[in-house]
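Tutorial sheet, problem 5. The two components below are modelled jointly, 1026 residues in total.
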Amino acid sequence: MSSVNMANESSDRLQLLQGTLDMLILRTLLFGPAHGHQIAKHIQRTTEDLLQIEHGSLYPALHRLERKGWIAAKWQAAAKDLKREFKYYRLTPAGKKQLVAEESKWKKLTGAVARIMWPAEEA
Amino acid sequence: MRWRRGKREEDLDRELRADLELETAEQRESGLSPEEAHYAAMRALGNQALLREHVRETWGWSWIESTVQDLRYAARVLRRSPGFTAIAVLSLAIGIGANTSVFSIVDAVLLKSLPIRHPEQLRVFTWNRYGYGAHDPAGMTSHSGYCMGDDYGGCWDGSFSYPAYETFRRALPQFSDLVAYGENQFTVTAAGTADFAFGQYVSGNYFTGLGAQALLGRAILPDDDQPSSPHVAVLTHLYWTRRFGGDPAVVGRLIQVNREPVTVVGVMPPAFQGLLPGREVDLFVPMSAVPATGPKYYSIAAPDIWWVQIFGRLKPGVPDQAAAAAIQAVLAHHIESYTGAAIPASSPIRIALAPGGRGVSILRDSKQTAILILAVTAVLVLLIACLNLANLLLARYAARAKEIAVRVSIGAGRRRVARQMFTESLLLAGLGALAGLLLARPMNRLFLDFLAGTVPLGLDAHLDTRALAFALCATLLTALLFGTIPAWRAARLGTSPVLKETAAIAGGGPRLTIGRYLVSLQIALSLILVVGTGLFLRTLQNLAAVDLGFATDHILTFQTDPGRSGYQHAEALPLYHRLQERITAIPGVESLAMSQLPLIGGVVTNGGVRLPGEARRKPTWFLFCSDSFLSNVRIPLLLGRDLSAQDFDHPGRSAVVNETFVRRYLPGINPIGRIFYPPDWGRDGDSPQPMTIVGVARDAHYQGVRATVPPTAYMPFALRPPGDSNMVFMVRTRLAPMSIVSAVRQAVAGVDPNLPVAQVRTEQDQVNRSLGTERMFGTLVTTFGVMALVLAAIGLYGVMAFSVARRTSEVGIRMALGARRGDVQWLVLRQSLYLAALGVLAGIPCALALTGLVKKLLYGVKPNDLASLIGAIVLMLLVAAGAAWIPARRASHVDPMVALRYE
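Model answer (C-alpha cells):
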C-alpha cells in the first residue's frame, strides 16, 4: 500500500472529509467530460498537490456516482490520441442538482466552522 | 445477469489499464526508466484487488454473489476434509434433531393454544374443597374427575354435576358459551371387531361453542343432544386413522358404542384432541347418550353425581373475579336447593377460573419433570456439539493461518475473511439441520412412546411449521455459537505477521488459548451427561433386579369388559367361566389367571379393612381375582391355601392376604381362620360381611415396580364392586406369548364376537411400559453420554494434535538437549489431563446441581451417588489420556534434526 506511505511522507497533504470526494468529482466534471485519471490529476493540480486522490477511493466513488445517476459514462477516443479510448464521465442534470445541493451544504458547514474558529474576523 | 457482470468486469479492467498506462507515461516523462515507471504507476494505483472489490460493492447486490462465492468455497473446503465434515454434521444433526423433536413435544404439551376460536377467552371452572376435610357440602354420592393442586396442599376440583352445569347455563350471563364434557371408556364394535376406546361425553354446544370445525362430515350440534335424538359420534383424527384406516366412507356409518347403535357423523382435524392435551381421545358422543351407554356413576339427571368438566367463554370486559363470584353464588344456591341445607357463610365453596386457552393438561403436571429433563439433555447435547465444533474450527483455521494471511495481503478485507469463515459454519449448521430434521421424526416417535408409558398419549406433536421455525432459529443460533469465535480469530490471524514467520523456534503459528478453554468447557458439560448415564444405568439395573414376586415370563395379557358389551353384573360371572374354558383349551396354554386390574398397571383398588374389635379401618389394597390366581402367576403361598373353585361357586368369602398384611395388622398370631371386614364398595344396604383368611402369600408387586408393597388382600372376583366388569386375563403359555394372540381372539369371539380383546401385550411388556420414562432416559442419556465422550475425545485429540504440531521444533530442541521419549510423552499427556481435570472440576458442581432434577426418576441410587460421579470422572480422564496418546507418540518420535531443519 505504497500510496499511503507516499502520502504520509509530506505532512502538508490533507485528508478528505467523508463525502467531500463526491462533491469534488461532480465539480470537476462541471468543466466537461473527463476520465478517471484526468479527474484525479485535476484535483491534485488545482490544490497544488494538497489533495491527492487515491485510486482506491476514486474508482469506487465514480462507480457509486454512476449508479446513483449523477454522472454517466461513455467510452470515447481521446482528443489528443484518437487511437486510444477512455471511459469519459459527464455530469447528468441530476448530478448538477446534486452538486448545487452539496455546495450549499458545504458552504453552511464551512461558514459554521469558521464562525467558531475565527469569531473576531467575523465580528 | 452473468454476462452483464462479465462485461462490467471487463469494463473496469479496461478503465484501470488505461489509467495505469497514462500514469506510466507520466512517470516516464518525469525521467524514470520504463521499468521504474511501471512500478511507480502500480504503486500509485495501490491495492488493485481491494479496489476492484470496493468498486464491485458499488454495483449492488454483490453480497448475493459473494455469498454464493463464499458458499461454493466453503463447500469445496468441507468436501476436502470429509472426516471433519461428517463428525460436524452428525453431531449437529443429533443436537438439532433432538432439540426440534423436544420442542414439538414441549410446544404441544405446554405452549400451543388449542385449535379453537379465541382460545384466550376460555376459562376452566374449578372449585376448592380445601378446609372441608371429610365433610362434603355438596352431598355427593359419586365423584369422578381430576384435581389440580392448589397452593395450600388441597386441590382445585374440576368436576361438577350435570344439573349444576345446566343451572350455570341459565344463570350466568357473564359467559357467552358454557361447554361441558366428561371422560369415559367405551367398547366400540365396528367392522366385526370390538375394542376399547377412550371417549368424552360432550354437551351439544361443545363444538359450536369452542368454534372447532370438523375435518370430514360435521361436528356434534345442539340438536344431537336431545333425549329423543338418534345417537351420533365424532371421531378424532388419531382414532380415525388407527381404527378405520383413514377411510372417508366412515362418515354416515353405523357403529356400536357399548352395544348402542351410533352413527358416525364426522372426523375432527389432527390438532383437535379435546380440551385435555396429551389425553387420548378416540371419539365424542353427546351427553344425551349417557343414560344408554354410560356407567352407573355418570348421570345427566342426578345432582349428587359430580363428573362433568366445564369450560366457559368469558365475555370481553368481565373481570375473572366478578365471574367467579357470580358462579359461587349460583352454585351455592343450586346446592342448597337439593341438599336442603345452607352452606355456612364461614366456609363457602370457593370458585376459581383458570385460563383454558391451552386446555387442562394433566400431562403438563405429571410429565413436566420428564419433559424438562428431556429439554435439558437435548440442549446439553447441542451445546457440547457446538463447543466441539468451535474447537475443531479454531484448530483448522489456525492451521490455515497462512492461507488466510495470503488472502488478506492480496486484498481480502478482514470482515470479508470473517464472513467467509462464518459462511463455512453456516453451511455446516445448515447441513446438520437438514440431517437433524430427518432424525427428528423418528426421535419424536420414540420420545412420545417412552413418555406415554402404559397409557397411550393423544398428542398432536408432529413436526409442524412452528417446529421448523424453531429448527431454523436453533440452526442460526448454533452457527453463531460455534462459528463466531473461530471466524473472529481467523480474521485476526490475517493481520498477524504469520507470513514472515516460518515456524519459528518459539512456536510456529498462533496459540490456541481459547480452544483449550473451550475443550475444558466441553468436558465439563459432557461430565454432566456421563454422570447422568451412570445414574440411569444404575437405576435400570436396580429396577431390573427388583423381585416382583410373580413370574412375568410366558404370560400374554389382555382385557375385556363384558359390562360394556351388554352383560349385566350377574351375567358376567358365567361368561368369565366360559372364557376360561375356551382359552385354557387352546393348545400350548398352561393356565389362565384373571384379575379385575392388571399387575403392574399403575392402578389399584384400595380401601380400609376393619378387624373385629377395632374401630379404625386399616388401609389395604385389594385385587379381585380368579381361583388359583396366585399359583398361576407364581406368587408363592407361605401359609394356608390358594383361592379355590369352591370359593367362587359358593362365594364363601375366603381371602388370601400378603405377608405385609399379616406383619402389620396381625403380628404374632396365626392369621389362618382370622376374619376382617372389607369396605362396603358403595353397595346400598348391604352390611359388610366378614372375609376369612385362608392363606398368606409372599409379597408381590401390584401397582408398579417402584412402589413398596402395602398390605394387600386377594379376593374372589365374585365379590367385586358392582358396575365394574373390566377383567384382565393373564394367559400362561409354553409358547412365545404373542404367537397365541389370534387363537385367543378366536376363542373370545367364539364365546361372543362383541367382546373386545383389548390391551393385548405380554406381561413383560406391561412391566417394561410401566418403566417407560426410566427406560427412555436410560437409553437417551446413555446414547448422548457416549456421544459426548466420543466428541470430547475428538475435541481433545484436535487440540493436542495441533499443539504437538505447533511445538514440533520445541520438542526437537528438548530432545536434542537430552529429553527422553517418556518425558516428551508425559509433556503431552500432562497437558491433556490438565485440560480434562479443569473441565471435570468445573463439571462436578454443574452435575450435582442438575442431577437433582432427575431425583424422582432414580431408583435405589441417590442423585449425588458417589460411584456414578467417580466413575464418570475416571472415564473422562481415561478419555483424555486416550485422546492424547497418538499426539504424544507422534511427539516422542520427533527426530530432533528433522524438527530443527524443518522449514
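Marking note: Confidence is low (pLDDT under 50) at residues 502-509 of chain B. Full credit if you identified this.
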